[in-house]
Amino acid sequence: MKTKALLWAICLLLACACSPSANKTGSVRSMYYWSTVFKLDSTKQHFLNSHRVSRLYVRYFDVVLNKQGEPMPNATIRFQSAMPEGADIIPTIFIVNDCMRRSTEGLADKLLTRILQMNETHHIDRVGEIQIDCDWTRQTRKAYYAFLEELRQKMHAKGLKLSVTIRLHQLSHPVPPADSGVLMMYNTGDHTDLNCEKPILDVKTALPYLPQLASYKLPLATAYPLYRWDIVFRHGRYVGIQHYEGELPVLSTDTIVVRQPDLTDIMQARSAVSRKRPDANNEIILFDLTNPNIQRYKPQDYEKMFSD
Questions:
Q1: Between 263-276 and 299-307, two packed helices, what is the crossing angle to 10 degrees?
Q2: 42 exposed, middle or buried (CB, 10 Å; 0-12, 13-18, 19+)?
Q3: Inter-residue contact 184 to 166 (CB < 8 Å)
């Protein structure tokens, strides 16, 4: 009898191990890659492997207005490494809002053609989605939505899905014509104000926007920030963000303040989103994959961001 009981127990364990629920590892783990050079050194590769990151949102290029007022690609990424094996790649394009104040005729065709050419040139497969990032406003919404609708139709014809970023202030607007969205839980405050201590992520500032989440008719993932800002102030007035030493002329009398979210800020933001829209945390995207950001938090902190 003991032998039979033991065999049943082993069978039960094996069945559980093979079941979908047992294989579930929580939220899909994703990262943004926002640098102008794509290079996976050992630090980045180890991070992706150890935290089981399965998706990379890679900024391919920006779209800005040239001197003639025409939308043009800018700051195109240069690939010095192959994409990580097994990871889904989502080409991401940042479009400056002013582009939507001008004619966008032909922009969808040009943008899609350029992305597909970059994929082919650099042997980037596992691409089933493209993301558009734009800080559109009420004034540019009509033009932006028309552009998205045209782009989505062209993408669907090629078997691709369209996702878009959703900033907190955009939640009160009608849902854009896209297949899914990414809620951007960062840049919640005024970084030009010396008295604003949490311009990157302040849950108290974000809370008034979140009631819109429950009724927002678009599948959502959520992105949370890892980065820091070194902000230069002169006599209390904003000068700029210093991304590297020597980028800005800093006087001895200037003040440099460091602003960055801590683990508590990120986890509180996660909880606030989950209370209003639990499925929005089914995919967690961290912004963004750089060595300083990787080293800013402990490995167990990243596991909490991804898993809790």
A1: 10
A2: exposed
A3: yes
pLDDT the model gives residue 122: 97
Look at residue 12 in the predicted model and tell me its pLDDT.
Answer: 40
Integer-rounded Cα Rg, in Å, for the chain is 22
Per-residue burial over 6-30, b if 16 or more Cβ lie within 10 Å, else e, is: eeeeeeeeeeeeeeeeeeeeebbbb
Q: What is the pLDDT of residue 298?
A: 96
Task: Give the other-Cβ count within 10 Å of 44's Cβ.
Answer: 21
Distance CA 240, CA 191 (A): 9
At residue 201, what are phi and psi to the nearest 5 degrees?
A: -150, 110
Q: Which helix (H) or strand (E) holds 58?
A: strand 55-65
Instruction: From residue 183, give the alpha-carbon distance in Å to each of 59, 113, 146, 284.
Output: 17, 27, 21, 10
- Return the axis-axis angle of helices 141-157 and 107-121, rounded to nearest 10°: 50
What is the pTM for the complete model shown? 0.90
The list of the chain residues with pLDDT below 50 reads 1-25
- CA gap 299, 95 in Å, rounded: 33
For 127, residues 6+ apart whose C-beta sits below 8 A from its C-beta are: 88, 89, 90, 91, 119, 160
Question: Cα 204 to chain center, whole Å?
Answer: 21
Q: Among residues 280, 229, 284, which one has the least CA distance to residue 259?
A: 229
* Interval 226-260: pLDDT, tens: 999 999 999 999 999 999 888 999 999 999 999 99
